[in-house]
Structures are given as C-alpha cells and as structure tokens.
Write a structure and sequence with these properties.
Elements (H helix, E strand, L loop, with lengths): L2 H36 L2 H19 L1 H12 L6 H70 L4 H11 L4 H13 L4 H11 L3 H16 L3 H50 L3 H7 L1 H25 L4
Helix pairs in contact: 1-4, 2-3, 3-4, 4-5, 4-9, 5-6, 6-7, 7-8, 8-9, 9-11, 10-11
C-alpha cells in the first residue's frame, strides 16, 4: 500500500471518528432531555450526575475560561462536553496512527490534536468577533436612533436583536434575556464582553453603562461611536490583509517540518523511538522542539498588531 493511500485512509477514518463523536454527543443531549421528561429514576440520576460534573467544571477558573471560549466561538457545548469530545478525538487519533508512527509519533499526534483543537476554538471565536465588530456600527446606530426616539436602552436592544443578523442577534438576545430576569445592564454587557473580547465592544459597553448611570445625550454619543467604529473596521481590514501572508507562511513552514518528522517514521518505522533512546537523537529532538517553540512564539509576536 502506497504512502499516499495510507494517509488518505487515515484522514477519512479520522473525519468519520469526529462525526461519530459529535453524533454521540448530540444523542446524549437528547437523552438528557428525554430522561427529565419521562425517564426512569436511574436515567434521571445519571443526568443529575453529568449535570453536577458539568457545573463543577464550570466553577473552576479554567472551566470558566473554556466556557467563555466555547460561547465566544458560537458553540453550544459545555466545558465537560468539549472535554469528552477532545478526549475521544485524541484517543481515536492515537489509536489510528500508533501502528504507523510508534510511541513518539503518537505523542506528537496527540499534542497536535490538543493544540489544533485550541487553535480551532480561537479561530472560530476570532472570526465571530471580527464579524461582530463589523456589525457594531449598525448596532450603535440602532441604539442611537432608539434613544433619539425616547426609547429605553433595553427596548433598543430588543429592536437590534430583531433587525440584525448573527452573531449580533444571538448575543443581544442573550443580553435581553438576562435583563428580563432582573440582571443589571452592566453585568449583562460585561458578560458579553467576556464572550467576545474586543476594544470596540468595550467602548460601546462603557458608553452604555456610563450613560445609564449618569444620563446625558446617549443618542449623540452613540452616533459618534458609530462613525469611529466604521473607521476602525477599515483599519483592521487593512492590517489583517498586510499580515495574512506572513502568518500563512509561518504555519506552512511549521506544518511541513512536523509532517516531515512523521513521514520519516513512516518510511523507516521505529526511527523516532530509536532517536529517543539515543543521546544524539535526544539532543536533536530537544533542539528541534526549542526551535519550533521559539519560532512559533516569535511568529505570534511579530504578526500581532494592536489596532
């Protein structure tokens, strides 16, 4: 069997594994609902245990951060559900490649899966934040018009939730729902800022909070913010275009290097395991790891432009 065919089979199998895990998680969610609707005591007890575990994870510091990251990425999974999916995907990936790349190669694949999932979540949240930032001028104008018409901020948010598209619509609906159950405007807006952190949203949130406390010409303030947000949106687009080539090139180089290491073990099975047991190989692997880490860190520093 050729190397290309082996790679294709592994990729197809991995995709099927991801689909299976997602389907299983969806079925578990539906089973939870059915158990509470009319299930047996044992089923309800299992649901309660899973709910307790999910609540415990959410109360931890890293659980809150993971929950905010998932919410910002637009995913309905809880932290516990994501950890289950990540564990299943990591175990499945290692089981698939262990026979081809050995222990060290499997460890590398596991690290790549973990890092890849984290980057995937960050990418989804970044794209969602960018889309949301692009909608902020429209949101500011709707709120300014509603304030000029004498409507309260909550009423303006309800109008914006109906008129705007996702992701702004869903985020604003969540804020309106929190206000409906008695939560303060400041806390609801701060939580949205935690889900979708950005300077543009922070300015809008601070303006709404300050105006709700002290009063003043909210309509004119929001109109000025809308014009400023339009200018910042164009600037962000120009900066993103300027650094896109550098970022793509850096990720490509790192991907080629790691793929070369795994292909070396495919061509010569056990090569990585032998390198780990050899002092010279250990030095070479350690040096490669240091250079990879330093290069990845430098790439992030050089391409990070605050706007």
């Amino acid at each position: 069997m050729s190397l290309g065919l082996i790679t294709a089979v592994l990729l197809v199998t991995l995709v099927l594994a991801v689909v299976a895990v997602a389907t299983l998680a969806g079925n578990m969610s539906r089973e939870r609902e059915l158990a509470f609707a009319g299930g047996s005591n044992t089923e309800r007890r299992g649901v309660v245990v899973r709910g307790w575990l999910d609540g415990w994870v959410r109360r931890t510091t890293w659980g809150r951060r993971l929950g905010a990251l998932l919410a910002g990425a637009g995913l309905s999974w809880g932290p516990l559900g994501f950890l289950v999916r990540a564990g299943a995907l990591g175990a499945g990936s290692v089981a698939l490649v262990y026979g081809f790349v050995g222990k060290i190669g499997s460890a590398v694949v596991l690290v790549l899966v973990v890092v890849g999932l984290k980057k995937w979540l960050e990418y989804r949240r970044t794209k969602r934040i960018e889309h949301f930032i692009g909608q902020l001028p429209e949101l500011a104008r709707i709120l300014a018009n509603s304030a000029a018409a004498g409507l309260a901020v909550r009423r303006g948010l309800e109008l914006a939730a109906r008129e705007m598209e996702e992701p702004a619509s869903g985020e604003i609906e969540q804020v309106v729902g929190q206000l409906a159950v008695g939560q303060t405007l400041e806390k609801a807006m701060r939580e949205m800022q935690e889900r979708l952190p950005s300077r543009e949203l922070l300015v809008l949130v601070q303006t709404l909070v300050i105006q709700s406390r002290a009063g003043g010409a909210l309509g004119s303030a929001l109109s000025g913010i809308a014009a400023t947000l339009d200018e910042r949106r164009e600037l962000r687009r120009e900066v993103r275009t300027a650094v896109m080539g550098v970022v793509f090139g850096g990720y490509t180089v790192i991907g080629i290097a790691l793929s070369s290491v795994l292909l070396l073990n495919l061509i010569s099975p056990g090569a990585l395991d032998e390198m780990v047991t050899n002092p010279i190989g250990q030095v070479a692997l350690a040096a490669a790891g240091i250079f990879f880490t330093a290069g990845f860190w430098l790439m992030g520093k050089f391409t990070k432009v605050d706007v």
